[in-house]
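User: what does the whole thing look like in 3D?
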Amino acid sequence: MAQLLHEIAWGEPIFPVVPDPEWEHRVKSELGMVSDYLKRLSPIPWVREAALIFPRIRVTTIPQSMQRVGELVIAQENACRFCYGVAKSTLRLYGHSDKLIGKIERQMHLAELDDKERAFIRYCRDLARSRPRPPKVEVDRLRQLGYDDTQIADITFMVAGNCFMNRLATFTSCPPVKMIETMSGKWMRFMWPLLRRRMNKWAIRSIPLDEDDDSFPAVIKVLRGLPGGGALRRALQGAFASDVLSSELKVLMFAVVARTLECQFCQTETKAMAADLGIPAEAFDEALITLSSPRLDTDELQILEWTRETISYQNAEIQERVRALTQQIDPVKVLEAVGISALANTVVRIGVLLDS
Amino acid sequence: MMDWPLLIAMIVVLVLSGIWMTRQRIRIRKLEKLLDLTNAKLEKLQVNFGRFTPEEVIEHLTEADGTYRPAKRKVTVLFADLVGFTRMSREQDPEVVVSVLNGYFKRMNEVITRHHGQITELLGDGILAMFGALSTNPWQIQDAVQAALGMREALVDYNEELRAQDRPELQLGIGIHHGEVLVGIMGTMELSKFGVVGDTINIAARVEALTRQHQIDILVTEEVRQALDQRFIVRPLQPTPIKGLVEPIVTYYVEAMLDAKVPDQAK
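Assistant: Here's the predicted 3D structure for the full assembly of 623 residues, as structure tokens:
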């Protein structure tokens, strides 16, 4: 059974706060404040940018209330203390009673939902968990119940995007946002309208997507017209343009996640990306079987080996592993690896829409 | 003129309604408390049940029609047994035997878990572990063989500790096979468990028994060897007949694993 907020194991932050006045100024101008976690992610521009954008993306094709409930279910499924706290507080701020939130947390509200809503919750949970990834029939079932393709893509990005934040927060052991948790307390009820207004102002409902896509174009294509498409494209471009880790390692990390989650589409895509980097098919296959490659240095070999642990994990173990990696490898490299693994888990989950 | 009987009737109805509503409210509150208590109990039960059965299985059992459909899965089975343990348990003090055995299980479990495997059953001094049974694991065969090598190393360390305590040392035999198993809830209404069955398990157990005949500790089948890359040093052994198979089985002794990250070793 998924854990409750107080049951989630959560360690001390793994990455230090790295002051970056320019970045902090930019965040402050957008959010009015700079959360601690954004300061800890500041050494890797594309990671911090994605962490700033992803949590603010709103679904545009289904009711916002469904997104809020879905986010709680996903955070709970991924046992992310950071995102769980935010999702639970958000539900409170938007008027959900503690009784109802308790029912959602304990999966008791399912009895009160209709088939369509219940299928939505199940899809959120199954895709977030991905043990294994939901089969195509589950996507077809959503369609049969009345969701159209755009809505399904919107929901899929919502789940996958939250999985990105869940992993980023868990692998870095980000301290929970105590402020929002405190503000959602009943005795602060008078502040709720103000907070809701502010949260609505932060929300992102559109990100232009007008350039050609170079990484995972088919994934971006299924999200075209949705804010998630633009956000994901920017994150992918940033990730592959960054030179902290080698492109070979990044492609192999995506391939490891694709192989574990049995995403045929992403496996083919990563093989093609590897070929573009000059990695022959046999060398690519061997690297995936042995989780090693002569093209990677010892630091990168450790990161590649660790990638398979980012799919299903226990918080205490994965946080301890990341902490250990930061003691052996430059923490900036580890931070980028955390971002890449989170992004790979996102892309491969969206790949469920491309399964034949 | 005031209509007294009507007024009295209205007051009586109001009072009675008030009493009825209060009683209903008390009843609802009691029922809610009962529901909370039942939920708490159910949650505790689910958490405890989770120690014996995978989460997905519990969800299937508690939702929908409450059944778990058996499924076939490709897994890698590792069967480990202690050589000469029966004799040791006869000769040694029961407390020593249990303590030695518990120390052994603890160490082996650590190694198996580290290599993404799960101990499914403890059969006396035997260990039945699965790789790739609970979630998809494309590296399940390599994981199982690495776990076996890790168990060999861990046993060397444990034997040193046992020697220092003047306790009997242990000797291990491991058989590994890859194939299809049936995963499901098995048993009767009164006593059932989540388990795996199939020839794959029997073959792993019989291959383990061959370790005694060949006087070596880790044996794998052809199905396992085919999936191993050049880092694993294996030596083929004479085909040997085993129960349940028409043809003698080809097995390989796993000598060691080269660390691909240390190029000098491979030379």
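In plain terms: Residues 149-172 of chain A form the longest helix (24 residues). Chain A touches chain B through 19 residues (CB under 8 Å).
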